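User: Predict Nitrate/sulfonate/bicarbonate ABC transporter ATP-binding protein's structure from this.
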Amino acid sequence: MTANATSDVHRDRAAASGAALDAVTKRWGAVRVLDGVTFEFEAGVTYVVSGRSGAGKTTLLNLLAGYVRPDGGTIRVPEQVGYLFQDDILFSGLTARENVLLRAGLHAPGGEVRSTVDHCLEAVGMTRRGDERVAVLSGGERQRVQLATVLAGTPDLVLLDEPTASLDPHTRRHVATLLAEVFAHVTCVVVSHDERLADEIGDVERLVLEDGELTHA
Ligand SMILES: Nc1ncnc2c1ncn2[C@@H]1O[C@H](COP(=O)(O)OP(=O)(O)OP(=O)(O)O)[C@@H](O)[C@H]1O
Ligand SMILES: [Mg+2]
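Assistant:
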């Protein structure tokens, strides 16, 4: 892929914390998703982004992840970015532990892979069911395993796309509590339609993506 002359994505080793958009523009055909957006995501803060379906919330996360290039402007993100996708991307034939191991193996130093996996499963309360195949886990349990895989990447910035969309209220509260605890000191950008999720996470900045603009709610 060649870089557009007027845009770039900077992976910043030194500023392993916050993230920033500077005059970022992104269109899909006639749809203008971001219209010259400048925004600073401060280190350690959790942002909850709402907006109607099709407003461009997933595109915003894909821009921050570097999967999509902006048409114009610059994006600064830390080097390690974790992404919990809108769709479940676990390997259902592998166990919870094996799914986390795949991610930890890419990031943790050799001798620490096993303890990293144990730590991540424990952090999401899945130690006891770690050796079950993902195929037999409930939706809420799968979502917890997904959070463990994100955690295993030791991210400085975490992107979560509708993390509670298919969960019942009880499980949603559990996942919200986990988000608040597990990623307490990490910059998080959470996309959610669900007003209650922001309340349940607690200390968050609410944003709205609408008509190409990202503003405080
Ligand atoms: N890779 C792509 N190619 C072409 N158009 C795209 C692409 N990705 C997204 N779009 C379009 O951009 C618009 C925003 O899509 P996006 O998935 O970012 O919205 P969203 O806010 O996440 O919606 P939802 O709440 O339904 O998940 C939509 O009109 C979509 O069709
Ligand atoms: Mg989306």
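The helical segments are 57-65, 96-107, 113-123, 139-152, 169-182, 195-201.
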